[in-house]
Known about the structure:
The chain has 153 residues and is mostly beta strands. The protein has one helix at residues 2-19; strands at residues 33-37, 43-45, 49-58, 67-75, 78-81, 87-88, 93-95, 103-106, 109-118, 124-132, 137-147.
Amino acid sequence: MKNVLYICIGALFAVLAFGSCNDDIDIRQDYDFSLSSWYLQEQIETGETVEIRFYLDREGDYEKAEYEIGYIQMEGKGEVTDSEGVRLVNQEVRPLAEVPELDRENPVRQVFTLFYRSTSARRSELKFFVRDNFGQERELAVTFDTVNDTAEE
């Protein structure tokens, strides 16, 4: 009689365990993200280098998500470099993982810094973009008015 009771209890647990399984598990890989920056000064002098601190905030963490960064110089002339002085090329992308001093402490917020140096006497307007390996892309426009005594380039 004990064996029948154990079998019945075992069968009941098996039914409850397998009956509560759900095949509709949502495994996300392409989490949404945003690109923002810390406070930026509004005016720079020709030849002055300014720090641009970026924040890549993600809705979730997928370890195989890869990001790349690039920029387009919309107006003016200048150079974008990383903390080691390596230039980023206008209208080309670079893996974000290669940016020195990329802060990965928080898995859903990555912080990194780039530097911009204006080489013209005109206003500088840049459009930075980050894209992931799932085709999502976010942009951030950055504008600096140039303080000069002359308006020549």
